Amino acid sequence: MPLRVTLLGTGTSHGVPTIACDCPVCTSPDPRNRRHRTAAYLELPGGAVLIDTPPELRLQALTFGLRRVDAVLLTHTHADHIAGLDDLRRFNELAGGSIPVYGHREAMADIRARWHYIFDPTTQGGGGKPDLTLCPVEGPFPLLGETVIPIPARHGRLLVYGYRIRGFAYLTDCSELPPSSRELLRGLEVLVLGAIRRRPHETHFNLEQALAVVADVRPLQTFFTHLTHELDYETTNRELPPEVALAYDGLVINCS
Ligand SMILES: [Zn+2]
Ligand SMILES: [Zn+2]
Ligand SMILES: [Zn+2]
Asked: The whole model's pTM is what?
């Protein structure tokens, strides 16, 4: 059974258009230049997996017709990746129970601290809090009949996770990828990789650095995500090698 991936958002933390910006990308009529904050939705034979819960999760779920979430993989706890966590309440109703949330142990501790009311049994219920089961992971783990491989990376000083399932890997906010993690990305069919803009950035790969990762791990196909308003879809794509393209919201990727 194939793995079907929908990219629910492909924009940097500010989103595109950026508030109060009149640049050519923010005012572009091309819908591929309109970018919600990043997330991916994976449909597997055993169920559906959401990677990250961005602020627009409700809108993304409505736009792309999401009807179930069986598990969540968190890359890290920056607001653009978790601030839609509360929208999981509807998926609790649809699932009829708690939803497991997987991530690095520090990310799980951070979720517990920052969303403390969710995990406080004395908090009043009544639909006001999602039902989540935090699952810290250190290495490969089984999920819905698949094996998920966390890919450790650095996002500035912060340790983040990318994730690999079969020949698909997703790695957004990242500025350094150690050799051991590159080994985990060998033989990929599709890689979704963060590439924020052309200019260097302190905590993200820019286009040139992301292309260097692609040249090293050589996936059959790569899509760049977490894009700022400095990257126009059409003109940037023309400069990229044929096996690499910018992603856009709603892009569907089929993997074997
Ligand atoms: Zn981000
Ligand atoms: Zn702009
Ligand atoms: Zn981040």
From this structure: 0.97
